[in-house]
Amino acid sequence: MPEIDAKTYEMEIEGLFVKEKVLTLKDIKSFPKHEISATIQCGGNRRKEMGEIKTVAGLNWSGGAIGNAKWGGARLQDVLKSVGFQKDGIKDLEKYHIQV
Q1: Which DSSP symbol is given to 77?
Q2: Containing H/E element for 80?
Q3: 28: closest CA among 5, 7, 1, 10?
Q4: Which sign does the torsion angle of CA 19, 22, 26, 29 carry?
Q5: What is the rounded CA–CA span in Å between residue 15 and residue 18?
Q6: Does residue 89 register a pLDDT over 50?
Q7: 47, 60 contact by CB (below 8 A)
Q8: pLDDT, tens only, 18-58
């Protein structure tokens, strides 16, 4: 996690289809908190066992290249709505799973 100074942290939002705005950490924390749990696994996990069947490139890892995390915070769609972002006429948002 990045180390930030909560008193001075700012996130600047600018670009097409939005009103330019600077949000403080307090502003960001005022949005509803959304949490998800995620598991991430390296493609080389258990490569040692795969190598016993067929030669594979890379380090000879056993199990263990896997992690679980619980992520939480403001949703991007809530932040974008707060700066007036509208999806009218923009078709690529769905492929990024951004619902406005």
Answers
A1: H
A2: helix 76-82
A3: 10
A4: positive
A5: 6
A6: no
A7: yes
A8: 778 899 999 999 999 999 999 988 877 888 888 889 988 88
